[in-house]
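Sample intake sheet
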Amino acid sequence: MAITDPLRVASVIREVAEAVILPRFKRLAAGEVREKRPGDLVTVADTEAERDLSRRLSDLLPGSRVVGEEAVAADASVLNRLAEQAPVWVIDPVDGTANFARGSELFAVIVALVVEGRTVQGWIHDPLADRTAIAAAGDGAWMGERRLRVSDDGPVAKMSGSAGWRRSPRLGKAVAKLVNQGSAAHDYLALVEARLQFAHFRRLHPWDHAAGVLLHHEAGGFSALLDGQPYRPRPVDGGMLLTPGRASWEALAPLVVE
């Protein structure tokens, strides 16, 4: 269900990342990093990339709206656009801002296109590696010409995933390995490339997850909120678990502590 040319959108994301984000990596001045709230960083790269992406993506799809992480931080009512009829670009200009600010390579750009409350297209761009995962509803998930696939479902004892050990000690004891990358985008990339098998997320901001859930689904994965309901790109309370299949979801979900 490609509403827009996915390669054209990917090109816009790449161009903005090259022009605005990469020149700031490991070169941020003291005044170019601040806290939106305690422990929640924003940099000049976040704000400028969101500004440029908002303008250029809106131009690609006349009549569309934008919900960006930094715009919502400034005005929470921007989230109401997700309930409107117009197509909505959901943008995380720099996912993993804390990583980016301290010089870690685990950051990325996330863009999703939401139509009538459902994600129809999604992009995750890793600027340093210059690679973009792309999905459209019903068309699969792709990295260039390579179709992306999640791991086969199997014994949870052999699985590695992303989750907080301290919050879910039973989960940590039941699986092979837990990691914390500090970037939802890189968790999703690891899932759709079968480098991780599961991920548990507690904070479900649409800009972090709208594209990733679609990519994971189109790569053959199973996901649901911990109450069993499907994820939708809107503000929601409660956690979400993504696994290769329903069987592993049902095995892992009782071990996750909210």
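Comment: The mean pLDDT is 95. The longest strand covers residues 118-126.
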